Amino acid sequence: MRKAVNDIQRCVACGVCALQCPREAIDIYKGCHAVVDTEKCVGCGICESACPAGSIRVEEVIINPGDLSPSTTGTERRSRTASGKKKHWYDYLWIWTIVYFALGFFNVLFAWLGMIDFLLPLIFAIAGGNKWFCNHMCGRGQLFRVLGKDLKCSRRKPAPGWISSKWFRYGFLAFFMTMFGTMIFQTYLVFSGAESLKKAIKLFWTFKVPWEWAYNGSVFPDWVVQFGFGFYSLMLTSTLIGIIVMALYKERTWCSFCPMGTMTQGICKIKAKKGDLKKNCHL
Length: 283
Ligand code: SF4
Ligand code: SF4
Known about the structure:
Layout: E1 2-6, H1 16-20, E2 26-29, E3 33-36, H2 46-50, E4 56-60, H3 75-81, H4 93-106, H5 115-128, H6 132-137, H7 139-150, H8 166-192, E5 200-203, E6 207-210, H9 222-248, H10 259-282
Antiparallel strand pairs: 1-4, 2-3, 5-6
C-alpha cells in the first residue's frame, strides 16, 4: 500500500504539504515536523511534489488492512484527491505582500509594517509553541505559490539537498541575523548623530541603490526613516532570493531555508522537548 512517509530530520515544518493534501491527512506536530495520518492518506503524491525540502515521499508501506477505514480505498481514493478546500481570509495574504512593497516603494516609512511579519511568527512560536503563522499566514510564501504554481513561473524541480540541510539553514539564519544587527547599528549611528540619513536601499546586502523618492520629510526623526530603508532592503532582498529559487526549483523553496521558519521551528522544538520532559517527570 502506498502512503506518504516523512523524514522528520529533513522536515522544516513549513506546512506546504498540509495545505495541499486533499485528504487533510497531514498535521504539523507542535511546529516541529509534519505527521501523516496513514488512515487518511491515499498515496496520491501531491505532498511529495509540493514539499520544498524533499522530506516527504510516497512509499510502499506494510499496513494491516484491518487498521484502515474503508474510505482509504477504491473510487474514494480518486475522487477525494480532486476535491477542493475551503478558502479562508488568510489565504489571500499574498495580496498584502504586494501592497506592502508598493507602499514602501513610494514611502519607506511603510516598511515598518513588515515588523508584523517579523514579530507574529515569533509570538506564535514562543507563546503557542506552533508555526501557525508560517503554515497559514505567510503572505510571502503564498506569493511564491501564486507566482510559481498558479502562474506557472516555476520549473517545479527539486532543489539540491544542501539547501534544506541543517548546516545551511542555521548558517543562513546566523548570516541573516548578523545583517539584521548591522542594520540596527546603522540605525543607531543615525540616532546618535554620528551619521546622516542615507536615502538608499541595499540589495543582496551588497548593492547600494539610490531610493530618494521614497522619503520627502515627515514628523519622524531620521533614525526612524533609516530603519525603514534598512528593513525595506532586508524584506526586498529576501523576497528576491525567494523569487529566484521559486523560478529555479519548487515554488516554495524559500520556505526550506527561510530564517524566520528556521528560528520558529527551533523555538517549537525546544518547547516541545521541554513539554515532553515535564510530562515524563510527572509520570
Ligand atoms: S500522499 Fe496525498 S493523501 Fe497522502 S498525505 Fe500526501 S497529499 Fe495527502
Ligand atoms: S518540509 Fe514542509 S512540505 Fe515537506 S514534509 Fe515538512 S512540512 Fe511538509
